[in-house]
Structure formats: structure tokens, C-alpha cells
UniProtKB/TrEMBL annotation:
<dbReference type="GO" id="GO:0009143">
    <property type="term" value="P:nucleoside triphosphate catabolic process"/>
</dbReference>
<protein>
    <recommendedName>
        <fullName>Pyrophosphatase</fullName>
    </recommendedName>
</protein>
<dbReference type="GO" id="GO:0047429">
    <property type="term" value="F:nucleoside triphosphate diphosphatase activity"/>
</dbReference>
Length: 107
């Protein structure tokens, strides 16, 4: 399933079931809860980590829908932007970006 279709289906389900479609802070809090459930399932091997991760993705799609963000488009742009970045490993082993971000004037 593609991202746009999934986002549309998530929003249709939210409307059909009477779930939140306006309160962004609430949706962020619910998303945090789903992330915690995924982490607990993964860390303890109790529960279904894959299902919990799917819940995280569905909440992200719903949040994008509430905010009228075309998440597929934003993901495509971000993947392209990340691919163009150059990273180096610092002395402490941490990766850091070595290419400067483009400013809006450069676009």
C-alpha cells in the first residue's frame, strides 16, 4: 500500500469511528504512547513489536492528515535531501553532517 492511500484510509477510519481529527497535542500524546508500547514490546519480546510499530506509523499518518500534510511528498523530499548529505564519523564515533543545509535563497 502506498503512503497516500494509507493516509487517506487512516483519516477515513478516524472520521467513521469518531476518533480525534482536530486536537494535535492529543494526537502527539497518543503517538508517544504508541512509541512506548512498541519499545516495550521490542525490549521485552513480550507482545507484538511489529504490530505496535504499525500503530506508530498509523498515528503518524493520522497526524499528517489532521495537519493536511501530504506525508508521501514530504517523505520523498526528505529522502532526497538525506541522500545528498555527506557525513563523517567524529573522533568520538558519532556521525556528523559535513555538508551545509541549503538556504531558501539557494532553491
Amino acid at each position: 500500500m502506498d503512503v497516500r492511500t494509507a493516509q487517506k484510509l487512516v483519516m477515513e477510519n478516524k472520521h467513521a469511528k469518531g476518533f480525534n481529527v482536530t486536537d494535535v497535542p492529543l494526537e502527539v500524546c497518543l503517538l508517544q504512547g504508541e512509541i512506548a508500547e512498541f519499545f516495550t514490546a521490542w525490549r521485552t519480546s513480550e507482545g507484538d513489536a511489529a504490530e505496535e510499530l504499525a500503530d506508530v506509523a498509523l498515528y503518524v499518518l493520522g497526524l499528517a492528515g489532521i495537519l493536511n500534510i501530504d506525508l508521501a511528498e514530504q517523505m520523498e523530499q526528505k529522502i532526497s535531501k538525506n541522500a545528498a548529505r555527506v557525513y563523517e564519523r567524529g573522533a568520538n564515533g558519532v556521525m556528523y553532517k559535513t555538508t551545509p543545509e541549503q538556504t531558501s535563497a539557494e532553491h
